[in-house]
Amino acid sequence: MNDLDFKRSFGARVKALRDKRGLTQEELAGEIGLSPHQLSAIERGISATKLVTARKIADQLRVDFIDLFDWVPRRKLSADEQKREAAIAKFRDLLNSASSPTFDDIAEIISPLRRR
């Protein structure tokens, strides 16, 4: 993959994840300290981004850093693994939006569910 293809792939992935989260370019750009114009250039593959900015993007989109890169080869997940990953993503979103007392309540509820 050449540099241009990489920037386009990365930008398309950022846009897809931003759209999935229901954020506008203005909202995401404001949260990560970029102008909407700068974010637009990244999403269109015109501009590269620093790793620090990519980490901020991943944090705001509530995804793992590696999820910004759609070219990473991954094995196909089984149906059970897909369900587990979806549940983990929902739980991660819940934790990211929870207050401290809510987090404590959640931890108390799930601790008996741990696999032994």
Secondary structure blueprint with pairings:
Layout: H1 3-21, H2 25-32, H3 36-43, H4 51-61, H5 79-97, H6 100-110
Rg value: 17 Å
Total helices: the number is 6
State the end-to-end CA separation.
Answer: 44 Å
Q: Mean pLDDT, as a whole number?
A: 86
CATH topology (level 3) name of the largest domain? 434 Repressor (Amino-terminal Domain)
Give your account of this protein's structure.
66% of the residues lie in helices and 0% in strands. The chain is an all-alpha fold. The longest helix has 19 residues, at 3-21. The protein is globular. 15% of the residues are buried. The model has no long low-confidence stretch (mean pLDDT 86).
What's this, in brief?
By secondary structure, this protein is mostly helical.
Features of this protein?
single chain, 116 residues, mainly alpha, 434 Repressor (Amino-terminal Domain), 2 domains, 6 helices, 0% strand, globular
